[in-house]
């Protein structure tokens, strides 16, 4: 019996377009224009979810973003999770399921939790599941704790986008006050952005009004003019979820399942908030039963979707706004069983309602009846007296109206309690932001419009612009004045039953009182102890009630109690739109000019520091990775190899104080580096730890070039700039980052010189003319080049630097002519093997932020006669401690085929209790035919040839301490 | 995200800048003249006020200048921006 709760006429749905979708595997029928919530209700499906902690059956509470009853997961490739059922429009083929229940909301195994609910009060988890017990229970609790599952599809096919936008006026909320504000600011001709949550700015205020054609007509003229303004941008189906400093507003555009989602960063000189009001619930036992809704929710379902999910309605209120719902229900032919009003007789005026409706003035609900479905209430006089049982199938509740302060509070604005409205209203703003409409506490329609017009003209005038008068017509029907008497909790409540304050997080009245008894009497502490207002809905309907309850209990005024600080996001935002998918557009990799050649020649490309993509190794035919690395390593050691060293960080330092500056930056002396030569040195942080290592070349007088690590370039650049601009600002030095201006092909191996001598070059490559650590400018095969004799492999090596545009040509000719020599391109994995064989340090492996140069056996790079360099004083100070230091050593096993895993701890004793170091790098050395490792070990340098225990993944292995060099310890090869 | 008014380029988005830590006195010309306690003070005791504090920002993706920004850490209001000069 589809749509049996659908009214024959009315609503904005299109009855000519039926749509089928599935909910928890069941096919449901609705119409175009329906949300999942309205379609479910029209089919009489009331139990639509289960609660977070107790797994109680829950229904749909509201028709909007404030929903706290039913959150759903949208399944499939374009799925998303944890969205309010009230916000998902239905479409053909849509598949959704309720979260937090298994197998379905009607039969949920988790409901056994209710039986033990007295055992799980608030703070239960804190009190019970500390270590080590937590580990035992964690998997069970994770399964029960109710949020959506990880989406079934591995990669969402939804696309994500982000945009920045700037404007003079941003209006948030397209209710009537928002439209007025938008139109008035639009008439200044400045850039205006209007953001609204719906398909179309509704122009409806939050507070219910009687249907009025004069208002509707006026709203239409406002919208028409707004749509014709070219300076206005209207973002629909866009939710503002964050309000940051300096009027930065974050919004989330989601036009429907599968349509590209978009993040908006809106920066506006002025923000106008017209986020309206949200109705709050009343707190009474079993106020969470399916079939209990907010009055505004029911009115909304009735007006927009032509759905009234019940026939015999009970209304429960403490304020005057429910009368419009009562009128509407009667017009639609529904029976109103009774109106229960907590205010004493005479305060609520129901005389003008048609027909004969029973009014229980001065009554409260002691308890709702029903389990999976609301069946009635037990009510009694507030002052005590005989109770009455009423039966019905729908309960509409109104506890009053709260200005929706979420964004206002996020913006830093203050607020205070307004007695006549029994709620909090905005007071002073912190940023350039104005609150208008019912958000500003203007609940009366005419007053709201006049106030908005006044505030916006003031804003326009203070902005130095001209304001144009907005014609406000006379309206035909206006409502009774809003009146309310707060009623924070039922006084004669059924003692054994739960009254929910925060439905979404299952926080009850008793939980709040427990928190207060246990001494958590600040509202923010109550929040943390009970999880009140922490849910997906951020406590939209419950937080003000909580303030009222605390105020009652502690005898404080509501201003003293305050309100839980709302946080962003206002409502769930998808991860995709926040994080954006990892991809080349969002995070572009740097590649060198020969990347295409690399790809065509079997290179396996890695991300290798500072966002560079470079070859890890080159696969030939059906080689394995290990085969490839061994083949490449052997080529370097015995023949001829080539690699692309372009990503190396390169800086140029020039000026008459260049040497003085570099003396402070490096550990080594700089002033005596001969022209055309380089020197290996370290850069320390002021704290005395290693920041980077590299070579400083002297190109000419007052002209140096630094060749540094790839991965640390950003940090080093910052370090250099800081000292140059701030600490040593008086020095005459210019620093230029040339990393992307010099690309290089590095030719290495014993045959490197012989091979290069076949090319025409004006650079003399003989060892006498061009010694190790030399640098020469000239031409190489007709290409302007700067050749450096540095070596990261431990072999004879020529780094041929050229302009980026020349690298492809250079590389091509080297590969082509090197064929006779068996020239082998090598990748960074092979470089790693070779540097471990040589004991050359690598940032992130041997250098870990606690290690100083002496620990690494690099005491020789510290200029002994240098008066000062960055880090000198701190390094000396660190060394005054007599504690053992971790020092770099080599490590081998007796069995050459045993590998120590990288990162394995070195343990002193069999019982593993004392860790005295760890393995920093471990590789198969093809030239030595054994595994070799580097390690940091307490007092390692004194312990040569000792045995240490390595805790490998599969047990202890014995290792022998060696010097940290396994190949050519005298360095004859690289100097050859 | 902040808008930082670079004294050289005008108001620019925070993404052009790199935060470089709290204000620190400029480095002494001769570290060895400092007493150990003065040195440690210089090294590891940065300003960290709740409220108005001074901090370094580097206009890395702009003019490249090293800036001293006075910012209220409670409200994020930026009170002034200037070239960072050693005193």
Q: In terms of topology, how is this protein built?
A:
The complex is a heterodimer of chains A (976) and B (87).
Chain A: E1 14-23, E2 26-32, H1 36-42, E3 49-50, E4 57-58, E5 71-74, E6 80-84, E7 95-98, H2 112-115, H3 124-128, H4 133-144, E8 160-172, H5 176-186, E9 192-195, H6 213-227, E10 232-235, E11 238-244, E12 248-253, E13 261-273, E14 277-279, E15 292-294, H7 295-305, E16 312-317, H8 322-331, E17 335-341, E18 359-361, E19 363-370, E20 374-381, E21 388-391, E22 394-398, E23 401-403, H9 406-410, E24 415-418, E25 423-426, E26 433-435, H10 445-462, E27 500-502, E28 507-508, H11 509-517, H12 523-530, H13 543-554, H14 558-561, H15 575-579, H16 595-600, E29 603-607, E30 613-618, H17 625-638, E31 641-644, E32 649-654, H18 658-665, E33 677-684, E34 690-700, E35 703-708, H19 713-727, E36 734-737, E37 743-748, H20 752-756, E38 775-780, E39 783-788, E40 797-802, H21 804-817, E41 824-825, H22 828-838, H23 872-878, E42 886-892, E43 905-907, E44 915-925, E45 930-938, E46 947-952, E47 955-962, H24 972-975
Parallel strand pairs in A: 1-7, 8-9, 8-13, 9-10, 13-26, 15-22, 16-17, 16-22, 17-18, 31-41
Antiparallel strand pairs in A: 1-2, 3-4, 5-6, 5-7, 11-12, 12-13, 14-23, 19-20, 20-21, 24-25, 27-28, 29-30, 31-37, 32-35, 32-36, 33-34, 34-35, 37-40, 38-39, 39-40, 42-45, 42-47, 43-44, 43-46, 44-45, 46-47
Chain B: E1 3-6, E2 10-13, E3 18-22, H1 36-44, E4 52-58, E5 66-72, E6 78-83
Antiparallel strand pairs in B: 1-2, 3-4, 4-5, 5-6
